[in-house]
Request: fold
Amino acid sequence: MRVWNNKNGIYQIYPRSFYDSSGNGVGDIRGIIEKLDYIKGEVDSLGIDAIWLSPFFLSPMRDFGYDVADYRQVDPLFGTLADFDELIREAHAREIAVMIDFIPNHTSTEHPWFKQALADPSSDRRAYYVFRDAAPGGGPPNNWKSVFGGSAWEYDGESGQYYLHTFLPEQADLDWTNPVVQHEMAEVAHFWFRRGVDGLRIDAVRWLAKDPLFRDDTPRKTENETNEYETVEHDRSRGGENLEEYLSVLTSAARQYDDRLIIFEYHIDPRMPYEAQAVRMYNVSPQYAAPFNFDGIFVPFSARQLGETIKRYQLLVPKESRAFYCFSNHDEPRLASRVGERQARAMAVLQLTLPGTPVIYYGQELGMKNVVVPEELAQDPVKGAGNRDGERTPMQWSGERLAGFTTANQPWLPVAPDFEQYSVASEENDTHSSLSLYKTLLRLRKDEPALAPDALFSIDLITDALFAFTRTSDAGTLCIVINFSDAHVHYEFKRAGSCIVSAQGNTYEETSGEISIEPFDAIVFRVQQF
Ligand code: GLC
Reply:
């Protein structure tokens, strides 16, 4: 993880929505190149030194690129391989590392492998996927559910067999028990590493390993479950015992190069022991791979609950690795919509002062909120409660037409109605904006040895309202105090010092004793050296 050692953050770019350079309403790779200076390169940049791109590979876009038809090609919608190579060059010139999405669990049904598997059931390609006969009494082979609704099995009338799809029927699961599949996917990883990619974000990790006997998932004893996927325990359809072995196929590829990093999209199953699951992911290859930590998304906005989970997590992170705290992404409602605007500012202080590496979703720094997308403009194949369009709307660059995202008549998803207020251009000139807060915190992370990813972390206090911790290096100590309540709360500083950041822009007297922290404020306090 050498190149990653001092990375002060990873910025997730959803290419469709970042910047449209071609004027067709959809963001593209050249658009990302044009905006690299916003991320890092100029004096006033965010100063984030790694980006992660959601998929840009050839795809029929049923799941917006998470259905890959060719792992080695750029979809024409986003540009060309030459554009991607230029992105790598331009990013590296600014010392920005580039991480790409890697989707090993399934391919698009448009992938030539799958097409051949269907066309010729006796071909080797058939064994790339999971085809099974109907259950003895007819119907799907077992009760496994698709994350996106309905059975996880799709009937193929030609052969009379079913194929497995953990997500859409157009996303057929690969069979990782097949060594040829493992080899193919390792080759894909090499293809991108050789092009200079610095890391992979591995999609949908939990489903790679399934029960080899294809036994039913255990029905769950909950009533009135509206989400069909949640009517069963996923004890057989995911998290199988060969998971580490399959993941190590990818980490072994990474190890053949200098300074590559792999991050697993592994959601901790709340019904299983938390520690064991995270440790399991870290153990795959502690120096080269780590899971995301999604506590900032799934744990409620509460001092006690967040404080306790972070405390527990930090204890299990191996010495040679670190935490990757992800507080929002393209699958979950935006941070400011989830917790509230002021609360999101407090969360920014938390995320950017914790040890490890923060993962920031494009627009999070602006305080962008979910957009209500009218049904006739909806794009996500997931309908209803789990719909993800709201968090995928165009980046808000300026107060100009369509937030300066595109010159097309219409972007692929609508622009937020409040874009004039929450845009890069307006927030850049406002010292109290969310963008200014992120820039201040990111700069502090860079300049303060106490905020280096591996600097000491020690919990000071967890109460119903407050979460307080210290970060320490040889150069000094910072104390971070976060008030999760909407009331003033007293906090007793044990040592003298001064407040250098306040999430809500409040000022606090130089103090050595008790201070009253404003509602939802989060402060960074420089402790005086003796
Ligand atoms: C992951 C992605 C999500 C996608 C799914 C299927 O969870 O983050 O966007 O729909 O996998 O690939």
